[in-house]
Design a protein that fits this description.
Protein name: Carbohydrate ABC transporter substrate-binding protein
Largest sheet: 5 strands, mixed
Low-confidence stretches: 1-5, 7-43
CATH topology of the largest domain: D-Maltodextrin-Binding Protein, domain 2
Radius of gyration: 23 Å
CATH architecture of the largest domain: 3-Layer(aba) Sandwich
Organism: Paenibacillus cremeus
Number of domains: 2
Order of helices and strands: HEHEHEHHHEEHHEEHHHEHEEEHHHHEHH
Pfam families: SBP_bac_1
Number of helices: 18
Keywords: Cell membrane, Lipoprotein, Membrane, Palmitate, Signal
Shape: globular
Mean pLDDT: 90
Strand order of the largest sheet: 2-1-3-11-4
């Protein structure tokens, strides 16, 4: 009950802020048409004030390194719109909203949109898209569909994609060289990765090297367009054959001597980039590559390369589900038109080309922009970045407001197996029961 009251309070706060924004001075209102210039249906009414304003920007789960923040947001916005100042706000989003410090723009992704909806933050951008004459047909269709899929009724457009985030397998070449193991290749199966891992998971010179960490079960399920919650029954979808197959791979990985030590069983970006003891990590490109490029810029990077995201035999050639980073304008923003100008700039062919040359996978359906990927970034020279574009992304599953709760429980299955030594059937059954119980509690 307290959770519902808190969300109601947040919604009321946002509504009050939205009304305040509407009643305040409206610098973005278009000037009235002259008497001798009748307003044409073809003429855009998207006339925006050039008065100095500050847009508060919040990065929600999306990796936004200092370099990316400067290159993709601060510099181009300052150049194009000197009247718009971007102020990055940090902290817990719910607490910011509760205090009335609601961001104008949220950098998020299509997988983490439900929490924004729970806070009643996203504005339907349909009207702004029409008034600003943004051409959505120029985008990669899967990215727009992924965003439209976030509205249960399929009508609202609650964000605009600005980069596409494929999956890939990154690897540390130095560790492979150290043990004389051939590098990974494109089009590998997860079983191939496991075999490589067995050759690399060993202790040497006081360091325990880990060949591979599978990260999260839902990452491996991604190409199958598998929802977390059954849209018809409202029950969690955990105890199913697909997750059984995935957990068999996790168990095989944990059974390698040296992978599970004490309470340590999971390895991620820190062990891959900072500690330099994890040989392979499959992850979302925009997240892990961002960390890699930042480490390179800081002079503490690794000798890395990349291949296509591995799959199971029955998903050969399929990419992970469509995950797009997106820009969301909040309902409470007093500067919605200016925020839309920023979105127009970030998704323009010119800026998308600049971002592609740097390190971002474009959301525009433009072969020339795709071809230019990484050509302006010395840190990507010689890397197999063609792997990012080899597999077409799979459709995004229908989202549910309880996705994150179920996803958390699915990810917790790793510890139950690695540390508590529970068998796969027990873990699946118990997690299914826990997920259904959690959904029932939140539904009250």
């Amino acid at each position: 009950m307290a959770n519902h009251l808190r969300k109601l309070t947040i919604a009321l706060n946002i509504a009050a802020l939205s009304l305040a924004g509407c009643s305040a001075a409206k610098p973005a209102e278009p000037a009235p048409a002259a008497a001798d210039q009748p307003k044409s249906a073809e003429k855009s009414d998207f006339v925006v004030s050039t008065e100095p304003i500050t847009l508060k920007l919040y990065a929600n789960v999306v990796r936004l390194s200092d370099i990316e923040y400067k290159n993709f947001f601060i510099d181009p916005i300052k150049k194009k719109y000197p009247n718009i100042t971007i102020e990055k706000v940090d902290g817990d989003l719910e607490k910011l909203v509760m205090s009335g410090n609601v961001p104008d723009l949220i950098v998020s992704d299509s997988d983490w949109h439900m929490p924004l909806q729970a806070l009643d933050l996203p504005l339907d951008l349909t009207d702004l898209v029409a008034r600003s004459k943004m051409d959505l047909s120029k985008f990669v269709p899967e990215t727009i569909q992924a965003v439209r899929n976030l509205d249960a009724k399929g009508k609202e457009l609650q964000g605009i994609p600005y980069n596409l985030n494929p999956g890939a397998l990154f690897y540390n070449k130095d560790i492979f060289d150290k043990f004389g193991v051939p590098y990974p290749k494109d089009d590998m199966l997860w079983s191939d990765v496991l075999e490589l891992s067995r050759k690399l998971t060993r202790a040497q010179d006081g360091v325990q090297y880990i060949g591979w960490d599978p990260r999260f079960p839902d990452h491996l399920v991604s190409p199958y367009t598998q929802p977390f919650v059954d849209p018809k029954t409202g029950k969690a979808l955990v105890d199913i054959p697909l997750y059984h197959k995935v957990l068999e791979l996790f168990k095989a990985n944990y059974d390698q001597p040296g992978v599970v030590v004490g309470k340590t069983y999971a390895y991620g970006p820190d062990q891959f980039i900072k500690d330099k003891k994890l040989a392979m990590q499959a992850d979302w490109v925009a997240k892990l590559q961002s960390d890699l490029l930042q480490a390179d810029a800081n002079g503490v990077g690794i000798n890395w390369d990349v291949v296509t995201n591995p799959t199971f035999e029955d998903a050969k050639g399929k990419g992970r589900h469509t995950l797009t980073s997106m820009l969301v304008i909040t309902k409470a923003s007093k500067y919605k038109e200016q925020a839309m100008q920023v979105i127009q700039l970030i998704t323009s062919p010119e800026q998308q080309m600049a971002m592609s040359k740097d390190s971002q996978v474009t959301v525009l359906n433009d072969p020339e922009i795709v071809k230019a990927y990484g050509t302006g970034n010395p840190a990507l020279k010689g890397k197999n970045t063609a792997a990012y574009f080899k597999y077409k992304s799979s459709p995004t599953p229908t989202p549910n407001k309880y996705d994150k709760e179920v996803q958390t429980l699915i990810r917790n299955m790793r510890g139950e197996m690695a540390l508590n030594k529970k068998d796969i059937n027990t873990v699946l059954r118990e997690t299914q029961e826990a997920a259904d119980k959690k959904i029932a509690e939140l539904s009250k």
